[in-house]
Amino acid sequence: MGSMQRRLGPNQVGSYGLLQPLSDGLKLLVKESVLPSQANKGLFYLAPFITLTLSLLGWIPIPFAKASPLADMSLGLLYLMALSSLGVYGVLLAGWSANSKYAFIGSLRSTAQLVSYELPFALLILIVVIIPGSLSLSHIIEAQEPVWYLVPLLPIWVLWVMVVVAETNRAPFDLPESESELVAGFFTEHSALPFAYFFLAEYGSMILISVLSSILFLGGYLLPGDISTSPVLESLVLGVKSCFLLFLLIWIRASFPRVRFDQLMYLCWAGLIPILFGLVILVPSILVAFDILP
Predict the structure, then answer these.
(1) pLDDT tens-digit map of 20-34
(2) Domain around 269
(3) What pTM did the predictor assign?
(4) Where in the cell is it found (predicted)?
(5) Is the peptide bond before 231 cis (omega within 30 degrees of 0)?
(6) Which of 130, 153, 172, 176 could disulfide-pair with 110, CB 3.0 to 4.6 Å?
(7) Is 252 contained in some domain?
(8) Where are the alpha helices (DSSP H) in the chain?
(9) Is residue 92 part of a domain?
């Protein structure tokens, strides 16, 4: 990001600043955790734990290679959607339990944002799922052997990138933690390790959503063409695709200014949802017309 924005960035700790994340993690680990005097102690410390746990649980149905998820769920996508819906509870509890107006406003913003963008998120997944006719992530990957879904669903992919940026609270849609008006949003009062938990959850969700995007649109662990691969190579292929998408998310963050909260909500309800309702009807109609439903 420092290079993209033509600034120095953190470049002193380790070669090219590569040890900066480790030094930041160590700093947060040894700092004292400060509890606001009027805060609800139990919920204050439970909220970051809930957020991080839900972020990590999302890895269970992910197939890193052929037939190798932690749990081969036939409803893997439904499971991930359920977890994404529950994620708002950690944020809401964090803002409410801190007894701070800044944190509370941030948590209310996050609740409105996540609830609103759950609907476009679900509609986009529905459009993709119609083609293979399965909610299993492994089946969706195998169905992309002829062609990756990115090619026929390129407009859907553009909308997907916009929705997942909002769903993961990433800039330019990081309004729940907008430091210009809310200091740090819902975790304003959190410090030390609980503060680190929130950031681990955010970046863990960003990595997870990049892997999910690779599976839904870029063929997951498949290489272009009918090429036989080993499980190690398949995992590397999925990793490379996911790293490209992570780079794309950071590129978006470095390139666009933060929007206003009312603009974010208007984009969802007046822009994305009407378009997606039309696409939910259009895509199955095309599949039926050309007789390519599974």
Answers:
(1) 888 888 888 888 888
(2) 35-288
(3) 0.89
(4) Membrane; Mitochondrion inner membrane
(5) no
(6) 176
(7) yes
(8) 20-30, 41-57, 76-97, 101-130, 137-142, 154-167, 179-182, 192-217, 231-255, 261-266, 273-289
(9) yes
